[in-house]
């Protein structure tokens, strides 16, 4: 994943934020993870780049990067949130509440759901990251049968 094709300097300044080295390092760390990065993953990468950046600075930088739309914050049902670079292809997930497995939802399935919502409610869904919770196929098969 990359943020290099985005004018992140302009985006930060347009929203009234300064472009600081810690913010750029945190953005680089999220990007370098190539996927959904937990805070521990981001911290590890940030500390490798600059061990003087403390945890609270990382959290504040993430808050700013999420606010301006450079980073997407998601809750995939695991302890803590995960972060990814915004603007990547829209991605949606199914999260198993029992085992924690995360599955990606195909774009055509989501487009069909968006069309059905629009038809039924006249509502134009603008979701670029959707998470649906439930039970995966494996966990469903492990459920005990209903007793009579």
Write a structural description:
- With 148 residues, the protein is α+β, with helices and mostly antiparallel strands.
- The protein has six helices and six strands, in the order ααβααββββαβα.
- The chain has helices at 8-14, 21-33, 39-49, 55-67, 107-121, 137-142, and strands at 37-38, 71-74, 82-85, 91-96, 102-104, 129-134.
- The strands form two sheets. It has a three-stranded antiparallel beta sheet with strand order 1-3-2. A three-stranded mixed beta sheet has the order 5-4-6, with no helix packed on it.
- A hairpin with a 5-residue loop joins strand 4 (91-96) and strand 5.
- The mean pLDDT is 82.
Concise overview:
The chain has 148 residues and is of the alpha+beta class.
Task: Please identify which CATH superfamily of the largest domain we are dealing with.
Answer: Winged helix-like DNA-binding domain superfamily/Winged helix DNA-binding domain
User: What is the CATH architecture annotation of the largest domain?
Assistant: Orthogonal Bundle
Structural class: alpha+beta
Quaternary form: single chain
CATH level 1 class label of the largest domain: Mainly Alpha
Main sheet overview: 3 strands, antiparallel
The separation of the N and C termini measures: 52 Å
Q: Whole-number radius of gyration?
A: 18 Å
Strand order of the largest sheet: 1-3-2
Q: Output the CATH topology of the largest domain.
A: Arc Repressor Mutant, subunit A
Poorly predicted regions are none
Tally of separate domains: 2
Amount of helix: 40-55%
**Globular, elongated, flat, extended or rod-shaped: what is the shape?**
flat
Individual helix count:
6
Q: SSE string, helix = H, strand = E?
A: HHEHHEEEEHEH
Roughly what fraction of the amino acids lie in strands? Answer: 15-25%
Number of strands: 6
Mean of residue pLDDT values: 82
């Amino acid at each position: 994943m990359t943020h290099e094709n985005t004018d992140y300097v302009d985006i930060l300044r347009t929203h009234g934020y300064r472009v600081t080295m810690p913010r750029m390092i945190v953005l680089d760390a999220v990007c370098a993870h190539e996927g959904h990065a937990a805070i521990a993953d981001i911290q590890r990468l940030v500390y490798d780049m600059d061990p003087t950046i403390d945890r609270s600075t990382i959290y504040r930088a993430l808050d700013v990067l999420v606010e301006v739309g450079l980073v997407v914050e998601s809750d995939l049902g695991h302890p803590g949130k995960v972060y990814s670079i915004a603007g990547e292809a829209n991605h949606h997930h199914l999260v198993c509440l029992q085992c924690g497995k995360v599955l990606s939802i195909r774009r055509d399935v989501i487009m069909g759901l968006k069309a059905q919502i629009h038809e039924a409610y006249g509502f134009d869904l603008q979701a670029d990251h959707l998470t649906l919770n439930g039970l995966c196929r494996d966990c469903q098969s492990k459920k005990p049968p209903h007793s009579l």
